[in-house]
Every structure is written in C-alpha cells, then in structure tokens.
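seq as requested:
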Amino acid sequence: MLRRLRDTGPQTKAQLAAGFDVPRTTLAGTLRQLVADGLVDDGPVAPSSGGRRSVSVRIQPDLRFVAVSIGERRIRVAALGGHLAITSGHSIDLAEHGDDVDAVGSTVLDAVADVVDGARPLALAMAAPDLAAPFAEALRARLADHLPDIDHVALSAVRAMALGERHSGAATGLTDVVAVRLGHSVTSATIAGGRLARGAASAAGEIGHLRVEEFGPSCTCGRTGCLDAYASSAAVVARGRELAERGRSPRLTEILDAQGDLTLADVVAGAEGGDAAVVQLAREAGQRLGPVVAGLVAHANPSRVVLGGPVAALGMHLLGDVRAAAYRLAPPRAAEGVEIVLSERGERAVLVGAGIEAFEAWTRDLAT
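struct tokens:
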C-alpha cells in the first residue's frame, strides 16, 4: 500500500480497494495500523463524483529519505518525501575538495543534516557511476559510520536514472525501458516488465568498453575503439581540445587560450552555439552510440530508450544520429514503436531513483 501511495499520490479508500481488488472492510485494518504507526494520514478531499466527497489517504508528509548522487563534477544531496518529491537539496563542487575523502565526507554529512532539517531520515541511498571506486566506497563507509541507525543502500547512477525516469521523467509509468547514461563511462540499465535488471554479478549494462571501431582511439581500458573512446565525457572533451589546438573551432580555441583547458560545458556550449566542428563531434559520438543502442533495442524490446548524463547535454546533435543508426540497424519488429529520447530531468532523475531504492530498503525492513 505504501508503494502504491508513493507512486500514485493520495488515493481515496475506494480507489485503494479497487486497486488491490479487495473489499474496503479488508483494507480498513491495514490503514488503521499504518495510521497508528504514523506512516499515513488524511490527504486532501477528493473531487465529488456526484455523491459525498471522500477524504483521501496519503503518506505522512514528514517522512524523509536521503539520496546522495556522486556525479562527474559534483555530489548532490537531496531529501525526498514519501511521494519522492525532492523537498530540499544541496550541491557540492568536487573541485573544491579534490580527493580528500574526509573533507568531502564531512561536507556531505553537513549537507544531509541541512536537507533533512531536524527530521530523522528513514533510509539513505547512494548512486555513483562506479560504486567500486575507492572514493565511493570510502564515502559510503563514512556515511554508514555516522548514520548507523538507518538503512543504507547503493546502486549505480544509470540504474538510479532508469528508476527516476520511470517514476516521474521521460519514461513515466512505462514497464519496459532502457536508460543510457553518458558520463565518465557509457552505461545502460534495463527495466523489463517493471523490474530493474541487475545481472548475475550486478554488472549488467557496462557497455562503454564494447568495441565499436576495430582501429579506433585508445581507451582507458587499454584497448582501442571502445564506445567510451568516442562518447564518454573525457573523450568528448579530448576531442574538443584537439579541435581547438588545430584551429578547427575558433570558439574552443579562444576558450582554450584563455583558460588553459576545456570543460565539457565548453564543448556543449559550442554545440548549442552551432559551431560546425563541435556539431560534427556530437554527431560522430551519436553515430558510434547508435549501433549499440540498436543492440539494446533488439535485446530488451523497450517502448522507450532514454539518454541522460553529462554528455547527453549535446542534445539533438547527438540524438539525431543515435536515432538514425538505431532505427536503421535494430530488427524492424523490435524497433517499431520504440522512442529514443533525451532525459527530461537530468541528474534529478538519479536522485529520485536513489530515493526509490532508499524507500524500498525501508519497506523491506517494515515487512520483516
């Protein structure tokens, strides 16, 4: 019942009974217990359908869950209510702390205290591009040590993105979805039949090191021609720097001369400004990503593919070529009807998805 109220918002008792296909008298005992436990209370009065207006039931508005998202350049900390709306948030610039886990951990703990504003969080979930990275592992341990009385869970950033987009983003309410996140690496997550796939070793979706060109650029994994060598954030910035140094993009050359280096935001601004060389860079990344998306479509037969992450900010210049390649190469039966779109919520989808994972951990404890 808590999951239903989380996902639908306030419901009348009649709506809840109909959703569970049980008599209202059967429902009443469960509702009484949830009210007594302080987990649900009366919501707004529902619109009249011609008779007496009914009071709805909602999750208690003071419940709080915490989501911590480690991004490529920032850590975002958010408090979410029981309906998974973000109630407050805080952003931490990693450049200010470098690799000092103690300093970052203290700042994150301060941010957690700030966003919950005196409330006791019920659970905390961390999302990160690579949960096995030493930085992420150390930060998880620090949070668990300082908040020992609540549930702690972790999931990859792309899986959190998939959950968040399905809950309230570009894939709201869909049961078969593929999310692709373009960040330090290119990763994917699949929701099939409403369930998130994780894989035998929780390694499903690590597509960044699929080889897309036999003799392509060198990749961080030591091989050549991997998807990451074309569509990861580092690869896009490196390609932008090359364009600037060769004078092919006057805009990026000017920025490089002034700053001494380029950021992904600089490359994205070049694409948004119509810089021909940068637009071509974005298209080439899309052309390499498209065949991989075609494979994901063939494998999962989703109704929607959502592209997100920092590199997705290249927008339609990237998306157009992803679509062209994916629709051309995917099996016609699987490709028919599938939509390939950009994320509507950006990194907020990751926070919402982490909030869902925190909520799930809390309800598992309730059930036991």
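The two ends are 16 Å apart (CA to CA).
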